[in-house]
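stage 2 :: seqdesign
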């Protein structure tokens, strides 16, 4: 059973956000989304999501990796698991993302079902601890 804490998706690609929103809500998870790092940080602070899905390439003040560093340096947000995604070479970004605190990097394009399954592997152990 999904808790009330949302999954937060931060990606400037509206279609990717909609695909992931649909995939997670279909499985019963509440979802929130943002199109840039600043909006995403604001939502992360106000919603305290259970998990954050973050695109590496974002327009605006911060890239996804820079936002990841901001999140992991924030005492209230650093415990939120972060999954990165990229349309670029995921192998190239794996080490910097892991060093900044990401759980893993998912390459685009992806199967929404497989994406949800990977994220659930992070969510399920956390839910079992809270039961």
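stage 2 :: out
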């Amino acid at each position: 059973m999904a808790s009330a804490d949302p999954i937060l998706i931060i990606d400037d690609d509206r279609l990717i956000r909609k695909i992931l929103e649909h995939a997670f809500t279909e499985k019963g998870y509440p979802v929130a989304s943002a199109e840039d790092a600043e909006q995403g940080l604001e939502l992360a602070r106000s919603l305290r999501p259970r998990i954050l899905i973050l695109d590496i390439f974002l327009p605006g003040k911060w890239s996804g990796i820079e936002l990841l560093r901001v999140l992991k340096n924030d005492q209230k947000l650093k415990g939120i698991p972060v999954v990165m995604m990229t349309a670029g070479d995921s192998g190239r970004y794996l080490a910097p993302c892991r060093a900044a605190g990401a759980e893993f990097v998912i390459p685009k394009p992806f199967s929404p079902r497989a994406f949800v399954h990977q994220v659930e592997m992070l969510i399920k152990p956390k839910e079992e601890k809270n039961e």
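stage 3 :: structure notes
- Residues 7-130 form a domain with the Rossmann fold fold (CATH 3.40.50.2300).
- Helices lie at 14-26, 37-47, 64-72, 90-100, 112-130.
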